[in-house]
Amino acid sequence: MNAMGVALSVMVAGYAAGACLAALAPSPRAARLITALGALVGGSGGLAAAIIVFATRSPYDVAFPNLVAAAGGVVLRLDLLGALFLALVAAISLPAAVYGITYTAAYEGRRSLRVFGLMFNGFLLGMCLVPCAGNVFTFLLAWEFMAVTSYFLVMTESDHPETRHAGLWYAAMTHFGFVLLVPMFLLMAPGADQTSFADLRAGAALLPAAVRSGVFVLALVAFGSKAGIVPLHVWLPRAHPAAPAHVSALMSGVMIKLGVYGLLRVAVDFLGTGPAWWGGLVLLAGSLSALGGVLYALAENDLKRLLAYSSVENIGIIFLGIGAGLVLESYGLHALALVGFGAALLHSVNHACFKALLFLATGNVDHQAHTRNMEQMGGLIKRMPQTATLFLIGSAAAAALPPLNGFASEWMVFQALLSGAQIPRPEVAIGTPLAVGVLALTSGLAAACFVKAFGISFLAMPRSEGAAHATESHWSTRAVMGVLAAGCVLLGLAAPRALGGLSRVLVSLSPGKSIAPAQTRAGVWLLSPHGIAQVSPLLIAALLTSVIVVVAAVMRVRGLELRHADTWGCGRIRQTPRMEYTSSAFAEPLRRIFSELYRPAEDLSVSVHAESPYFVRSITYTSQVVPWIETAFYDPVIRGTRALATHVRRLQAGSVHVYLLYITGALVVALAAAWWFE
Amino acid sequence: MSRFLALVVQTLVAVALAPALTGFIRWLKARLQGRRGAPPWQPYFEIRKLFGKEAVVSHTASWIFTATPFVVFSTAVVVASLVPLVVVPSGPFVAGDLFAAVYLLLLGTFFLALAGLDTGSPFGGMGASREMTVVALTEPTVALSIVALALNAGSTSFSQIVAHTLAEPSAALGSEHLLAFAALFIVTLAETGRLPVDNPSTHLELTMIHEAMVLEYSGPYLALVEWGAALKLLIFLALAANLFVPWGIALSFSPVALLIGLVSLIVKLAVLSAAVAVLETRVAKLRLFRVPELLSASFVLALLAVMSTFLAR
Predict the structure, then answer these.
(1) How many domains does chain B have?
(2) What is the 3-state secondary structure of A621-638?
(3) How far is A200 from A186, CA to CA, in rounded Å?
(4) Which of A397, A512, B53, B238 could form a disulfide bond with A404, CB atoms 3.0-4.6 angstroms apart?
(5) In this complex, do A532 and B62 lie within 8 Å of one another by their Cβ atoms?
């Protein structure tokens, strides 16, 4: 057994042992520790396997043909693309597992931590196996395993009605995607016994163009529902807030990226890209998701729902990169296309890092302030200084501010889209600049959104008792968040290096073709496709720091007198939290400007004094933003499904004789079909 | 080495000139309105005075409030080192391109908005909310203007864009250049808090955007914030001048070329700031909810600029 085999065995054994032993643990406390220990061992194994593949640059195959032989056996194949996503899963799972030790302590006595440990490790195992899968059966098995275990994790707090509601949405959407995956693979498979990914790749080359496009659209919808593109994103803002914080971090940071992995695997690896309209479709999906995600994030008052919508936005940015790559590839601009795919991969890694950090920080706030509603928070920077600083780093990265990591990948997406504008076709030459405009608006709105997320939650005065009495949470949670924050900074400063590493993945996706010169020249520079425009996050950081140091030194030498006083308030006597800007108020201008999109339901009732209408007794104002696009899109679907189910129910007569008739009928039809096709 | 020195000196010149630019606009506005007005160098006295005063910090404020002036000032300085002023920055000391400049300025605004919220004052929150709204809505126009310029030059780097316009003087009067210039000029007014989007000289809190956000600042902190804002104005005006009308900019490091570059920069800035001053005396402030209309008009201009680059090919 070689090193690779050992690493993969450790991964599977670690997770399996963590799951089984946690389920049998003697006490809740032991269950928590075993859960984390199993996840740590398994994650280290997975990370080691991914690193070995990266270092040797050769894929690793292992097959168990006798395991469920009827379905083609279990085949694992870890190539560079798979290794990247395996590394992503494993790397984020380590801090999440450590965080879980203290976070789940609050569940002791209220929930079964044994079941939680079982499902948590099962979830991680499923996620690690998806990028390792080498045939259809293994892939679908891992995919479904991941979906089912994560369903139970979402349902951890199943005594809340909204959690059960979220679980239903999640289960429905994830199985909708699964239902589309099966015909997609069926279309691609050349024969019943040829379901390995190599066969699919060979078979896809021989398919007629219409079938290839059919496969692509199925892949886009199926994997898009997992990734959370608009309008298939509905489960994200429901499931993410319901799950425990570290599970949300994994789901939002990593699990939705496996949708990106699936799309890249099918569209780029198996199908080897296609006509330009594929890219156009992905660009459209990406634009809708980016803009829709950030606009709904802005209107949100629940911090975790805000982050979930922000994940929709970031998936949109990733899809913009993929779409630009597909369009460029269809015009034979291979080197430029790789910039788009590279930008998408880089943003996947970056988003995983900062979104995991933000969800973990939110979990701390939720546990301390006992609320996820930003209108109830405030002043937490004084009560939880380190959590606040870490959340600020994550926010700045999410707003794509230099020199942090979000900036580097968004810059690459911009450059990829800009290359598209040079294609002399009217629809491309106008479409890609529009996508640039969408991306720019998205990043501006994201900055506004994260000013709100950080500013309203952490700054000024506490708006509730819970926020006023919050304290810093356990040191281990802050330590793992510190690791993730360091990741955000390092991935930003060393973005050219990271992109150099990703270029190996890109080369492996399309062997035999040359790679853009811009990406092989790793250094401190991110280079545009033609190498003319360049940006160096490292240099930007150095310049910013040196100017700040010089100015601060000058101020110190001159002497700075400080006096502390009350905030100025037009002569009012005392400042209270009620005077502060709230989350709703902050988003109000944008809510008005985009009112058509939000269509807020507002209700204002003023009760006046009986004597005179000029004396107001009380004013009640409620405003609620229900994403009407979601209801407009899904209500007919839900109604239709209900009506269909009512009709189908008539088949269930309850009589054994009728069922026997069905069975006989089915048998006759099957035999007739077999005879006919013979 | 001379290149590096030229860049450092040029950045310092920009930092030194910035207050004079705001002073000049104020002085010219006063003259146009029939007032005497303070002399153009008045902002230097104000900055000096503010640096000598004590700073009052709210009890509610956190370290964000005290760190923000440094971030705002330093982002403006770093952007000033990227943009073409007297010479075109090129070579290994230039940290970024047009996109990097836009995002660096966004970093400053991000912190300024946080500082506005930090004191818990309703004015700060209001300013922060409005500023972020305006900034978010200007981003697509800025990006599309960059695209229009970059499509001609084949790059988003400043030196390439300037070199392209110098090589093809007819491009400067091309429709795409004129449209992009108009779009960028509207954005300049919005981003730097000028009329008709924001009124830099208002004293009514409810009409303020930028000034409401920085209402709590005093002493040296206020000096840094104001200086940073002046530098931002200079950067935007210099961009509008040098990206579209680059003639006069120094192409070598000979003293004569540098002198011509400096003089032409000052002349261009004077012309543009005179335009701003005339505009500010002629138009009234727009209602906040009319601002998106202005900004979407600028977006359409930028989109037309991109389309005409395509049609011209």
Answers:
(1) 1
(2) EEEECCCHHHHHHHHHHH
(3) 10
(4) A397
(5) no
Measure A536 CA to nearest chain B CA, in Å: 5
pLDDT at B161 (0 to 100): 83
- For B73, the domain range is 2-312
| B77 and A CB contact within 8 Å | yes
pLDDT at A313: 95
Q: What is the DSSP letter of A196?
A: B
Lowest mean pLDDT among A111-115, A584-588, B91-95: B91-95
**pLDDT value at residue B1:** 67
Note whether A459 and A392 are within 8 A (CB).
no
| Mutation site, A392, A401, A538, A591, interface B, largest B CB count within 10 A | A401
CA distances from A391 to A43, A385, B191 (A): 25, 10, 27
A418, A443, A461 member nearest B150 (Cβ): A418
**Which of 240-269 (B) contact A at CB < 8 A?**
none
Amino acid identity of residue B224, one-letter, is L
CB contact under 8 A, A459 and B310: no
Average predicted confidence (pLDDT) for chain A: 88
Q: Which of B103, B154, B289 sits opposite A400 (nearest CB)?
A: B103
Give the best residue of B106, B286, B298 to mutate against chain A (max A CB count within 10 A).
B106
The pLDDT confidence band at residue B99, using thresholds 50, 70 and 90, is: confident
> How far is Cα A111 from Cα A126, in angstroms, rounded to an integer?
23
Distance CA B150, CA B154 (A): 5
Quick one: pLDDT band at residue A41, thresholds 50, 70, 90? very high
Average pLDDT over residues A516-541: 69
CA distance B239 to chain A (A): 17
- C-alpha distances in angstroms, B259 versus B81, B91, B253? 18, 21, 10
Please give the model's pTM, rounded to 2 decimal places: 0.94
A313 with A446: CB under 8 angstroms?
Answer: yes
